[in-house]
């Protein structure tokens, strides 16, 4: 894995703390399910203003945490230096999506959102996981929150055209 092109990176989470005395780190995971972040053999961590590759020696769900043991991170002092680091992988390391209506959040950010009447509602800034379903956060003339309800609200995702078509009233 090479950190050469930051535009090819997909952020998966961040380091939030240490676990024990032997260099394990606690990780906030944005993967679904959250434990999948531990399945990657190599991760990139954003440290000292650059992406740095790290080999994953072990990883697991530990209670409400995800914990990882990175190679060459052997004590709590080294692990503490990683707190706050963003975690990413390259796009080529992501599993292929096979089901219709499945998209990586990173692919939706930046898409223009239009309703069925052809009105532009804004641009996807990020997504929120609410438990019930994901929510698109749009910026435009005002901030909008639109549930990502496939086929009920979101009718089409056209990555090639950079557009998302939704059944959503402009006044909502």
Task: Characterise this structure.
This protein is mainly β and 172 residues long. It has 2 domains: 6-92, Elongation Factor Tu (Ef-tu), domain 3; 105-166, SH3 type barrels. The chain is 5% helix and 47% strand. It is built from 2 helices and 12 strands; from the N terminus they run E-E-E-E-E-H-E-H-E-E-E-E-E-E. The chain has helices at 76-80, 105-108; strands at 9-19, 24-29, 42-47, 50-62, 65-70, 86-90, 112-115, 120-129, 134-139, 144-147, 154-158, 163-166. The strands form 2 sheets. A 6-stranded antiparallel barrel has the order 1-2-5-4-3-6. The longest helix is centred in the middle third of the chain and has 5 residues, at 76-80. The termini are far apart. The mean pLDDT is 92.
Shape: elongated
Helicity level: under 10%
Architecture of the largest domain, CATH level 2?
A: Beta Barrel
Average pLDDT works out at: 92
Q: Which class do the helix and strand fractions yield? A: mainly beta
In terms of DSSP E residues, the strand content is over 45%
Keywords:
Elongation Factor Tu (Ef-tu), domain 3; 172 residues; SH3 type barrels; six-stranded antiparallel beta barrel; six-stranded mixed sheet; mainly beta
């Amino acid at each position: 894995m090479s950190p050469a092109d930051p535009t090819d990176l997909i952020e998966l989470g961040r380091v939030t703390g240490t676990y024990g005395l032997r260099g394990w780190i606690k990780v906030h995971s944005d993967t679904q399910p959250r434990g999948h972040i531990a399945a990657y053999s190599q991760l990139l961590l954003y440290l000292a203003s650059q992406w740095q590759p790290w080999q994953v020696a072990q990883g697991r769900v530990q209670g409400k945490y995800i914990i990882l043991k990175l190679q060459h991170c052997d004590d709590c002092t080294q692990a503490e230096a990683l707190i706050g680091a963003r975690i990413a992988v390259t796009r080529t390391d992501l599993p292929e999506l096979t089901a219709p209506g499945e998209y990586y959040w990173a692919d939706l950010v930046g898409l223009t959102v239009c309703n069925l009447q052809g009105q532009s509602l804004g641009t996807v800034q990020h997504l929120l996981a609410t438990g019930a379903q994901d929510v698109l956060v749009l910026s435009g003339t005002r901030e909008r929150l639109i549930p990502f309800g496939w086929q009920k609200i979101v009718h089409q995702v056209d990555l090639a055209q950079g557009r998302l078509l939704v059944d959503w009233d402009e006044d909502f």
